[in-house]
Structure formats: C-alpha cells, structure tokens
Amino acid sequence: MDVTSIIDPLNDAQRQAVTAPSQAMLVLAGAGSGKTRVLVHRIAWQIQVLGVSAHSILAVTFTNKAAKEMRGRIEELLNMSAQSMWIGTFHGVAHRLLRRHAKQAKLPETFQVMDSGDQLRLIKRLLATLNLDADKWPPRQVQWYINAQKDEGIRARHMMETGDPYQRQMLIIYKAYEQLCDRSGLVDFAELLLRAHELLRDNPDVLDFYQQRFRQVHVDEFQDTNTIQYAWLRLLTEGKDNIFVVGDDDQSIYGWRGAKIENIYSFQKHYPNHQVIKLEQNYRSTGNILKAANKVISVNDGRMGKELWTDAGDGDLISLYAAFNEQDEAHFVVERIRAWVNEGGLRKDVAILYRSNAQSRQFEERLMTTGTPYRVYGGLRFFERVEIKNALAYLRLMSNRDDDASFERVINTPTRGIGAKTIDDIRNIARDQSLSLWAAAIVLINQRTLSARATNALIGFLELIKRFDGQAEGLELFEKVKLVVEKSGLIELYQKDKADKGEEKVENLEELVNAARLFDASTIGDLEDQENLGELDMFLANATLESGELQGDDFDDCVQLMTLHSAKGLEFKQVFLVGMEEGLFPSQQSVDDVGRLEEERRLCYVGITRAMKQLYLTYAESRRLYGRETYPRPSRFLREIPSEHIQEVRMRATVTRPVTSVKPKAQSLQTEGKYKLGQRVSHAKFGEGVVLQMEGDGAQERVQINFKQVGLKWLILAYAQLDVL
DNA sequence: CCTCAAACATTTTTT
DNA sequence: ATGTTTGAGG
C-alpha cells in the first residue's frame, strides 16, 4: 500500500481534508488552491487506505470535462481503471439512474433526452397547439419559467392558483408541456434531475440500494448546485453524512441559471456534524494578482471569508491600459501578445477574456490581420448543428416512433412534398385524440381526406423510416448512422446548398458517421447498463448529454478567446481582461441589483485569478456597441483594486489613433487649437479625462470630455480650466 | 417552396 | 453592427 504518493504532494489543509474520517465535509477551496487535487486524492485515500471498493464511489461534477479530468487523474494516481466508479455530471448520473429504473421513474424504456434547442422547439409547437399568441407568451420565457420551476422541484400539480393571470397561463402551459413530454417519451435537462430526485424519494427500495452502495459521495463546484441537485444529494446521504463537497462561494457565477449559493450555508445546517476546511494557499498566481483579487472580492457582503496567499512572491504589477476605443484596445492587446510570443512565450498560454461574446470580434479581426493563430471558445457545438440534429432525428425516430420533436423536425427535411397543411392536419388529430404525431399520421392516411399527392408523400415518409429500421437490423452502429445519412437525402440537400456552408455540412455528416464508428458504449456505463439499452440509444443519449465539447487541441498553439464564464477552472500565464467598463462589466442589467452586482464581482474575481504571471486590464474610453457610439466609464472593479498593484500602460506614441471612429466634423477641428482628440486633460473639479469631441470656435468652442470619475461632459473652453497632461 | 427584406433583440452556459 | 426570425411576394 503506497500511501506516500497520496499524502506527500499535499499541504496541511489539503491533507487534513483528504484524510478526514467519513463525515460531512465542506472544503472551501479558493481559486487555484488545488481543489481537484483534494477530490482526487480523497478518493484515492478511501480506496487505498480505507479499503473502500471503487464500486462504491460516487463523484459528481457539472461538466463532462471536469468528470473526465477527475477520472483520468484518479487512474493516474492509483494506476488502476476507474471504470467501476460513478464519476459523471449531475445530468449524466441522473440519466444513468433513470435508464436503470425507467419503470420506477415512470418513463418508457426508450425515453430520449432533449437539449435546450429541442425543448424550445417543442414549446413553440405546444404554444401553437394551444392557440396562444407567441408574441404574448414568448417561447423563451415559457422555457425559462418551466425550467425554473423544475430546478426548484416544483411540478405543475404542486402549484396553486394565485389568481395572477400570468401565473395561471404559465401553469396551463406547464401542465400541457408535461403531458406532451410524457406522451412523446421526452425528457429535458431539468427533468433528468427532477425525475432522478423523485425516483429516490418515491421508491424506498431504490433509495436504500444506492444509499448502501455509495460509501462516499463527492461533489465538485458545490456552489453551483441548484435546489433539486442539493435535495438529491441530501436524499442519497441521508443519515450517513457521507458527503464530501468542494466549492468556493466566491466563484459562484451561475446564480442566473438557478444555482443556489445558499446551499453552502444550508449544508452547515443540514449536516450539523460537518467539518469545514479552507484551502487558501494558491499555487497559480503571483502575489500582486492575488492581492488584487482578494481586495475586489472583499467588497462583497456575506462571504464565508477566505484570503488567498502565495509564497511565490509578488511578481509583476498588473497592467492597466486605457484604450481610445475598442479598436485601439484590440490593437494594444494583440501587440502585447506578439511581443510575448517574440520573447518565446506560447500563444496557448495567453487568454483574452471578455464579459460577452460580442466582444470577441474586434480581437479576432486584429489577430486575423496579424496572422496570429487563435481559438474562440463557445461556438455551436458539434451535436447542436442543424445537419447533425436532423440526422439524429431520423435515428431517434427509428428508435422511438412517438418522438414528436424528431418527427416534426424531419418530416419534410429534405422537402418531400409534405406541406404545412398536411402537418397541421396531423397535429390536430394528434391533439384531439392524444396521439403521437406518428400515430396521427397513420390515422390521417386512413381517413382518406388528403389529396392523393399528399397521401403518397406522407406514406413515403413513414415507409422511409420503417425501411431504415428494417435495414438497420443487425448492422453495426456506424453502419446504421451511415445508412441514415446517405439514404435520408440530407447529403443531397446540403450538396446543392450553394451557400458556402453546404460543403461544411456534408463534411459534418461524414464526421457523424465517424463519431459513431469511434463511439465506445463501454466507456459510458458498465455492463449492467448496456444490457438495458441498445447501442444506438446510448449513442443518442450521449450526443445530447455531451454535446461535442471541442477539446482544445494541445498541438495547436493558439491564443485563447473566451467569456469569463467559460474561463472558470482554467489558468493561463498571461491574461487580458478586456472591456472593463461600466455597463459592459459589470453588465448594464446587473448594476441596480445588489445580488447581481455581487455576482458580477465574483466573475471579476474569477477572471483575475485565471492569471498566473501577467494580468492586463483594459477598457475603452469610447466603444461602438450595438451600432451606437458609447462613452462608458471605467469599471468600478478597477477602482476596487489598490493602485499599488497596478501600473498604467500608455502606448499613445506607438498607436496610430483610428480617425474613422470620430465624426468628420470634429475631425477637421482636431488639428486646431490646444487640444487634440484623445488628449488627456485634467479639470479642477472633475479630475482626469480624455477629449472626445470638439465643436464651435472662439468663445463658443466646446469640448466633450470623458472624465474617469464623472463620465461624459461638454465644457465651454473659455470657462473650463483644463490642464493638458 | 423558396427568396428577400423589414423588424427585432442583443450577458453569461452546461447539461 | 449583426445575426435571427417573421412576413410578403415570386
């Protein structure tokens, strides 16, 4: 038994957590403090020292990536297969439970998982069926409402009429939605969690089985759990307190999608015998970066309280750059990256982090023109592409005729002469007789009310699916996929798509066949699971649950561009935190709500702590946003960083100021007089600022100045006493 | 059935 | 500015 490899690489706090007796444990792990390491070593400790069987380990994460990493690191540390451990996302584990106990969960064996796109389409259709005006009841809002209820564990039947007409209508829709999902055998993401909770709650034998089975339950990113996830964890560990959670209240940035930071506080109430261990030693960043992060986050109220420290020294100061506009900002950032690379730095160690996706464009353009390889995270994932969804819909329909969402998706894709009228008829029959669309289509054919042409087209479609099903018999998974891709007419459809994207879509379909070839069901569950489910269904479920995360190719040396949210959990030697402006970051929608503002601040904390060696903060004094010129003030978060950790960078001399963003009228004036556009000035009352526009002359001459403290002002030059800086 | 233009909205994202 | 959705017309 080699305990040293488990214990030696740990600091005191980490070791204490790893070797603690089996009891409720809350590890408050600051950014870069070795959170995953603690989790991995804790599991290893139990197996190697306490003799716990791998079979009785459960570990839940939020992302597939985190689950994969944890599994890999455990295997590496223990030098054994982690196959029999339940390590997965909340959704993945819930899905596995529901597959195993479909009957007790009151689900058909062939139930399929919908992603949010499928869900939205289903809701749109439902609203149409209910004759509701989509303008008055926006599908997105309905979707949000339903998911919010499910996240809280609330079923339509639990809800009471409040007399509020909005709530009443939502309730009607929610009820109808539940019925439709049941009839079609469809389960959305929130439903997976809710169903899994109900499965354990309502089936004592099932609950007992898993309570016995899992000797220790581990949870990653606990601050991101929502109500139902936490309730599920509590059920599973009831009375045994065998729960080990790792999280950081300061990195809770998903409140807007139902995460309950309060779960950390409730944990201490619900598990009175719990122990709290704080991990505060940071192994990632320099002292200056950590001190800045600590200061920013300390502005928030009601924290558990944590202060990161390092013994690695202060390192470089944080650089602050005030750009003239967003193009100047991009220019500056890319020049710095080029300098970094020239000095031997790797591009993949550099990240540009922004608050909203729209900000990536300017950087992409700049990187493009300088020929710097880069990668943008967060685009459409593979299994979310239309062409892929279409192909999967055929496969789903083969597996489950009642899958209305898939039926509707491909009934006329590619077009085969089944028009809106025919589909409408099918929908009506389905609604009136509570049938699936497939069954309703058969009824419609037998009614003989359709024109011969429409009837033939419809029969043709049904026959096509049946033929697929017949031909697929006995084929390998990838051959089935190939069959559908080739014979559905999708390839032809995209081949004649003259728009540039057609070719790419054909390639993606070929890639889908390839993905099926590589798909190895045995990596998903263990043998018990595979008996319950066909390989095709496993493939389909996996496609939804793991929507094709583009794994960063380690071979490619690319600058990384992503939102602050997707940067959580990652680290980079050099980080650019761009667009540090009021209204952008913190975002406009957050500024007048304390709770949301605090979440923005945590996001800022996350961003700062991504940096290992160098951190650059940038903002623009003028920015084109949604087609309008705006003059934002620097972000309040900048002021929350003590100036002793910051150095201002000025690159005026080397930057060719783009004149294009300035009104032509002002342009003609810019060479005249004492002040130039972009000139830094200081005012006795308003402080420091930048000249943005000038107009008039003589006594009427006015300048528009963007002041750091007070924002935008027009001043009459004759009165204003400005000092040139 | 397809194409084009007007209207529209526009934080953050995983599963 | 830009991408997406909806409606009219070919």
From TrEMBL:
Keywords: ATP-binding, DNA damage, DNA repair, DNA-binding, Helicase, Hydrolase, Isomerase, Nucleotide-binding. Residues 8-286 form the UvrD-like helicase ATP-binding domain. PANTHER family: ATP-DEPENDENT DNA HELICASE SRS2, UVRD / RECB / PCRA DNA HELICASE FAMILY MEMBER. The keyword NADP does not apply. Its EC number is 5.6.2.4. Residues 287-569 form the UvrD-like helicase C-terminal domain. GO terms for biological process: recombinational repair; response to radiation. ATP binds at residues 29-36. It is an enzyme of class 5 (isomerase). InterPro entries: DExx_box_DNA_helicase_dom_sf, DNA_helicase_UvrD-like_C, DNA_helicase_UvrD/REP, P-loop_NTPase, UvrD-like_ATP-bd. One of its GO terms (molecular function) is DNA binding. This is DNA 3'-5' helicase. GO terms for cellular component: cytosol; DNA helicase complex. The lineage of its organism: Bacteria, Pseudomonadati, Pseudomonadota, Gammaproteobacteria, Methylococcales. Transmembrane segments: none annotated. Belongs to the helicase family. UvrD subfamily. It comes from the Bacteria. It catalyses: Couples ATP hydrolysis with the unwinding of duplex DNA by translocating in the 3'-5' direction; ATP + H2O = ADP + phosphate + H(+). The keyword Transmembrane helix does not apply.
